[in-house]
Amino acid sequence: MDEIINRLKKDIENVKNSQDMSEIKARYLGKKGSISELNSKMRELSNEKKKEFGMALNKIKADANEIIETKRKEIEKRILEEKLKNESIDISLPSTSIPYGAPNIVEKMVEEVEDVFMSMGYDVVDGPEIEEDKFNFELLNIPKGHPARDAQDTFYIEGEDILLRSQTSPVQIRTMMKGKGEEAIRMICPGKTYRRDDDDATHSHQFMQIEGLLVDKKVSLSDLKGTFDVIAKALFGEDTETRFRPSYYQFTEPSVEMDIRCHHCKGEGCNICKNTGWITIAGAGMVHPNVLKNCDYDPKKWQGFAFGFGAERLAMVKYNIDDLRVFYTNDLRESVNFDRKEAE
Ligand code: DAH
Fold it and tell me: How far lies 120's CA from each of 230, 322, 327, in Å?
């Protein structure tokens, strides 16, 4: 037995790889290996000797296993080290560049507007995009058959009553109804709106509006002007001039268009302001008494102003973009461009 072990120790020194390893294992511990063959010697022994021999046999098996196992680990370690040495990664190779995007510019615009209004105590609220006729039109003082409905060519979903909202103004009604004629309101509602327009550089069947409503006691048109001034300066710079132009909406009286002095040409006239020196960025007005009444607010006690921005229009004006479709085509190069324009 000692002889076998000594031979194994010698043989194992010459083992270089895992193939030699399995050979040597078979030679000593395999079915016909020299250690296994000792089993047959058992038969020739007396019962007494058998026990002693058996114990010695177990020990030599264990010793052989240990010797082989130690060597196996040693070889594996060496192979791994060699691999690590030879297969090192060449970090000097140029990597493939992965273009990364930037937030959609309309979304960023909305967040900017939200920040300014929140700083003035406004809540940001939500409303459904699938809307009822009564909220989208009727309670906003636009009865059935009114020509104003034609200007907002609407997607109807079910009959004449369920539609995709053509404006965010119905959220005014929903908010006032929650106030039950008793609570003052300051809210803005950014959201998607839909109209049956053919898509072109300035029209889209889906677009984003930012609605606003303030209801309180003793509210006047000058409060609206002051509010508009704050938002215009925050978005377009401290030296931005603002003006109101008379307009007409069914749910406000009086109604105005809110203009800013063109920040590109400073009012001298350019292609962005179509040589007028002014750019319209929102419709607005004092909430019509009928609308207040429809929502249980007594127009003798309560007044309010409302406004509606087109979010894409704001972004187009701010970043000098002349085609609305780029906001929706998901071209990464465009959003990266906007980022750069903003940085400039
Ligand atoms: N809803 C109007 C539109 O889509 C925009 C608007 C104008 C909203 C005046 C208002 C407002 O709240 O007071 O054309």
Answer: 10, 31, 29
Phi/psi of residue 232, nearest 5 degrees = -65, -40
- Kindly report the CATH number that applies to the domain delimited by 105-343: 3.30.930.10
Q: How many CB atoms lie under 10 A from the CB of residue 10?
A: 9
Ligand 1 atom at shortest distance from the alpha carbon of 251: 13
The pTM of the full predicted model, rounded to 2 decimals, is 0.71
141, 169, 171, 197, best to mutate for ligand 1 pocket (most atoms within 8 Å of CB): 169
pLDDT digits (tens, 9 = 90+) for 177-212: 999 999 999 999 999 999 998 888 888 999 999 999
Dihedral (C-alpha) 199, 200, 204, 207: value to the nearest 10 degrees?
160
User: What does the chain come to in residues?
Assistant: 344
Instruction: Give the count of alpha carbons within 13 A of 296, CB side only.
Output: 11
Spans of all domains in the chain: 2-86, 105-343
The residue whose CA is least distant from atom 4 of ligand 1 is: 167
Task: Supply the pLDDT for residue 271.
Answer: 81
